[in-house]
Amino acid sequence: WLNGAAFGQTPVKADKLEESIRLRDELKTLELLSALKGIPEERLDDLLKWGKEPEALQLRLFLVSRFLSTIKEKTGADESVLNHLESLLKPQLDLLRGKSNHSPEELKVMELCLDAVKIAKLRGLFYDTVAFIGYPLIDIRRKAYEALGALDDDRLFPVIMTLATSQRAVERTYAIDAM
Predict the structure, then answer these.
(1) Do residues 93 and 86 lie in contact, with contact meaning Cβ atoms separated by under 8 Å?
(2) What residues contact 167, with CB distance under 8 A and at least 6 apart?
(3) How far apart are CA 65 and CA 59, in angstroms?
(4) Which residue has the higher pLDDT, 82 or 128?
(5) Residue 160, helix vs strand vs coil
(6) What pLDDT score was predicted for residue 75?
(7) Whose CA is closest to 16, among 6, 7, 27?
């Protein structure tokens, strides 16, 4: 589905791409990948491995965007696309969930991740997404509610009931928002 040769990848571009991946030159790699309509299958494993590294944020976001484009273009997503997408999103959501203060850029990344969970219906990220229904900013909570709603997962009911019966008023408010 992402064969670079099918999209006009020349041997020169392939060599440059291979070198930029080997050198972990994120900007050059993104430049070369942007020129292609697809992601070369022979580089996919290397890109996914690199994309999971915490410092490779731009590459990870690029790959997530490409996978989402693939899902939107097709009526049914290839299982491997969903698995790759989930494997990129999980560490990113873990990283974001572990922080208490987020920059504006991180908030945009959070929204992209939650949108991806919603669009791709990634049930494996249910609990990662649940963590954001108690986020202080309403826009993030709404994205989390939308993503969880798209999953149509019965595991959400106990979460909402726990929030609804909480001693903390703010958590009861989050439960009302989630309904």
Answers:
(1) no
(2) none
(3) 10
(4) 128
(5) helix
(6) 53
(7) 27
Residue of 98 and 74 predicted with greater confidence = 98
Cα torsion through 96, 97, 100, 105, rounded to 10: 20
> What is the reported pTM?
0.77
What is the token pair recorded at 60? Answer: 């990870």
- Neighbour count for residue 172 (Cβ, 10 Å): 14
Residues written for the chain = 179
Structure tokens belonging to residue 9: 């990848």
Long-range contacts of 80-88 (CB under 8 A, 24+ apart): 80/1, 81/1, 82/120, 82/122, 84/44, 84/48, 85/116, 85/120, 85/122, 86/120, 86/122, 86/124, 86/125, 87/48, 87/52, 88/48, 88/51, 88/52, 88/60, 88/63, 88/64
Tokens 């993104």 correspond to what residue?
A: 30
